[in-house]
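Hi Q.,

Before the meeting this afternoon, I wanted you to have the NAP prediction in hand. No need to reply - just skim if you have a minute. The sequence and ligand are here:
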Amino acid sequence: MAVRVIPVEPFDLVIFGGTGDLARRKILPGLYRRFTAGQMTGESRIIGAARAELTDDGFRDMVREAIEEFVPADRRDAASVADFLQHLAYIAIDAKGTSGWEQLGRLMRPGMVRAFYFSVAPALFGDLAERLHQHGIADAQSRIVVEKPFGRDLASARALNEVLARHFREDQIYRIDHYLGKETVQNLMAVRFANILFEPLWKAEYIDHVQITVAETVDVEGRGAYYDKSGAMRDMVQNHLMQLLCLIAMEPPYHFDPSAVRDEKLKVIRALDPVKPEDIVRGQYRAANGGGSYLDHAENPESITESYIALKCHISNWRWKGTPFYLRTGKKLRARSSEIAITFREPPHSIFDDERGWRENVLVIRLQPNEGMNLMVMIKEPGPGGMRLMQVPLDMSFAQALGEVAEDVPDAYERLIMDVIRGNQTLFMRGDEVEAAWAWADPIIQGWEGRGDRPQPYDAGSSGPEDALMLMHRDGRRWRDIR
Ligand code: NAP
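Predicted structure with the ligand bound:
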């Protein structure tokens, strides 16, 4: 079986910030992979734009190096890299300046899909939108792609939405949350809505609780100054974990189309209860196990920004009343592991005398590493000695189930950029969704900021702060191991 590749329409894609870290690490290598997969057709063109004075060839050299650094050697070859580079051009433009815009306008070809990737600081979004409009470069069909962070609170997110809305309709705006581009994340929807098996049980009556974990081993990776103003709640929970929660909790949309899917996600966010201070644990890693401390990278040596957060949320609707969702994410943890675990309730009555061990079924959806699904089921412990029960996994690794195809699957950025060209917004966040997520997150953040709460220290390389364990223990539950 091979991955089916459907070529997209020819396009002119302008990457503002085309020389930046994101463009070098993700966007341009991703486009190269789509080119070699045959998805990007011959007429398409990619134009890098930034302030640096570079020639087309200078830009191509930079992109060649980026491909060599970020595309594995067995997935590239010199001939296809050379072909790909022929589709590249560069233009020196200052988002706040006047030169370069007319030249860019002349480069745009009629009849091509036009997309503008704003891979620059959000403070420049307004300038770019304004100038694209002023110089008649963006037409009514053009798309713009904007990166996270989309605001740092409700007011700033609203302001960004307003700035973009001055010149672009909502159906032209693609807000990236790269989590939604991950194959396994989309599989959440396939698992839920393409199988009859789960839906009848997918409610508070049968589900005891849900755990969503995104654990990272990395530190703030040279983003110390940015991260210190953000923290785990803004950087991860308000966007990525919120999206995962929505996909688990949403009602079945009437169709897999952008409005229907995003309407249902929005309803979940709006149904989230405020989170009580006692249901939040914030942590900050300290030097241990050979790893450094958060404060080594922070701008402020007294920083009280959290590099870890765990919280318990409730969704007030018919489906979920009474089933808590526990979310946690952090840096410098024991292992890199992202998963969603859905723990079902115990059977109402046990016909077996054996009372040892766990009795619940748990459905674990692993997002990384080793993407797959695992359903914990109870069976009889083998051997004589009566009817003793044990829990065993029905384990499916997507790599094993799909073989080589799993390796050919486009990564999140590749898929999302192709969706922009196709004009499919299903996997992008709508403006009202982002605002609703901030409206939920703002009071939580303001709460600890107002109280001046200090995060609890946890050892680098550990599972997080002790109090996060208590958050679960208190409710007679426990986190799954991070491994
Ligand atoms: P970066 O490495 O600092 O690159 C910024 C880019 O913008 C450079 O190409 C820079 O080139 C250009 N630029 C800066 N000022 C400009 C101006 N006035 N006019 C035109 N171009 C200008 O930043 P980045 O890490 O690539 O991040 C870009 C965006 O993606 C940010 O919003 C960031 O938050 C977001 N993001 C990044 C990552 C990541 O992994 N890096 C992940 C998620 C989101 P010149 O200086 O030559 O103009």
